[in-house]
Write a structure and sequence with these properties.
- Helix 1 runs parallel beside helix 2 and helix 5 runs antiparallel to helix 6.
- The protein contains 10 helices and 27 strands.
- 23% of the residues lie in helices and 37% in strands.
Length: 417
């Protein structure tokens, strides 16, 4: 099926849907992803199949050529209100439409900065003010691997393009969404990239600029210290009265790095922080669930939530002099890690939730670096995981059809002899 043209695959999907003799057929952008020369023949076939059937077909469509040619009735919505309901010739006339200003839309997705799909439970959420935000998010909402990764759409309108960019970027930075990785920060960084602001972002933009965008997302210096304090004092602020004579050693995992700090509570909500050769004084106070941290004369607002899974991680949002989103693990009471690279040398782990749909190796088989080992289906996409090095399959810890989670060991390696 994968080798068939896009229009034929869509027809197969629609035929399968009609086999159940439905009364209502919902078609969400039926020609999306279909080549221009295929879309009209495909829709002609669909309309022939629907002719005389005792069912109603409801299209959600943005292609006005499809709407005007095939729909008998058009209903247009704006902010939840019906603004047009008539035959296509009348509804699409748009006599009252006046073009003014600029609008930009982004799609907020449950994926990391490398576009890998992610799942989890929303633990903290606050929508921005002044933007149109179409979503169904709330605290406690569970994002599963069974649907696509889009969580919502944010739209900004302003008199000029640059004002719309700044408005949307500011709104993204004001949005709180903790509990699972999203592309919120990546979208904000893309909007502020000089190539995008100059209006020069073309189709290869991400292929050419994604690495520079990711660099903008990496917290450095004070932001790292503030994030560590947000985790350590997520539930209780530092001592307001008596200072502590003891220095507290702290280790925080940040990706492949380990941040080593020394803390000493000084009373009055103050903490002395030492990282490397630098010593800083931090002052903290809490307002609701937000921790206000002043470090080196700059005020930050921090929020940290604990996310359980294979490994307990802390999701931290920093707002203030700059906006950052970090994932930390508190390793203060753990033995020093051998590092992610050493783990990768010994095992292949699931990077996200999904269903194992193909396993291309067996125990005792020798593989070369880059060989396709298995396939995981997540959020309607198939992802191939490859061997990180030349090795022999020592053991398999999962089977086809099994649901797997982030960090779960799937394959154990041993050195090739």
């Amino acid at each position: 099926v994968a080798e068939l043209p896009g229009g034929v695959r869509k027809l197969i999907d629609i035929a399968l849907a009609m086999m159940g003799s439905p009364k209502l057929l919902l078609l969400d952008e039926p020609t999306s992803g279909v080549a221009a020369e295929e879309k009209f023949p495909m829709m002609d076939t669909v309309m022939q199949a629907l002719d005389g059937q005792p069912l109603t077909a409801l299209f959600v469509e943005h292609d006005m050529d499809i709407v005007s040619r095939y729909c008998q009735r058009v209903i247009a919505f704006y902010s939840g209100r019906i603004i047009a309901d008539d035959i296509p010739a009348v509804a699409l006339a748009q006599a009252d439409v006046r073009l003014q200003g600029h609008a930009i839309e982004v799609r907020l997705c449950a994926e990391d900065e490398h576009f890998t799909p992610q799942t989890g439970t929303v633990q903290a959420f606050a929508a921005p003010v002044g933007l149109r935000f179409d979503h169904a998010l709330h605290v406690g909402a569970v994002v599963t691997p069974h649907y696509d990764s889009m969580l919502g759409k944010l739209i900004a309108h302003a008199p000029t393009r640059l004002e719309a960019i700044d408005k949307l970027s500011a709104g993204l930075n004001q949005t709180t969404l903790l509990g699972l990785p999203t592309n919120r920060a990546f979208l904000a960084a893309c909007l502020q990239h000089p190539v995008f602001r100059a209006g020069e972002a073309l189709i290869p933009f991400l292929a050419e600029q994604a690495d520079s965008v990711r660099e903008r997302l990496q917290a450095q210096g004070d932001a790292r210290s503030v994030a560590a304090l947000a985790v350590l004092y997520a539930h209780q602020a530092p001592a307001a009265e008596m200072p502590s004579p003891f220095v507290r050693p702290v280790r925080m995992g940040l990706g492949d790095e380990v941040l080593s700090l020394s803390l000493q509570e000084m009373g009055q909500g103050q903490v002395r922080v030492q990282m490397g050769d630098a010593t800083h004084q931090a002052r903290m106070h809490r307002s609701g669930k937000v921790l206000h941290i002043t470090l080196n004369g700059r005020l930050w607002q921090a929020r940290a939530v604990a996310c359980t899974g294979t490994v307990k991680r802390w999701h931290v949002l920093l707002q203030g002099p700059a906006c950052f989103e970090l994932w930390l693990t508190n390793q203060s009471h753990s033995a020093p890690s051998t590092g992610a690279s050493a783990q990768a040398a010994q095992s292949l782990r699931a990077p996200f939730n999904g269903k194992l749909i193909a396993l291309n190796v067996q125990e005792g088989q020798q593989v070369k670096q880059g060989d396709a080992v298995l396939v995981i289906e997540s959020m309607k996409l198939e992802h191939i995981l490859c061997a990180p090095r030349d090795a022999v399959v020592h053991s398999l810890s999962a089977s086809v059809g099994q649901q797997v989670g982030p960090g779960q060991v799937l394959v154990q390696w041993k050195d090739a002899t």
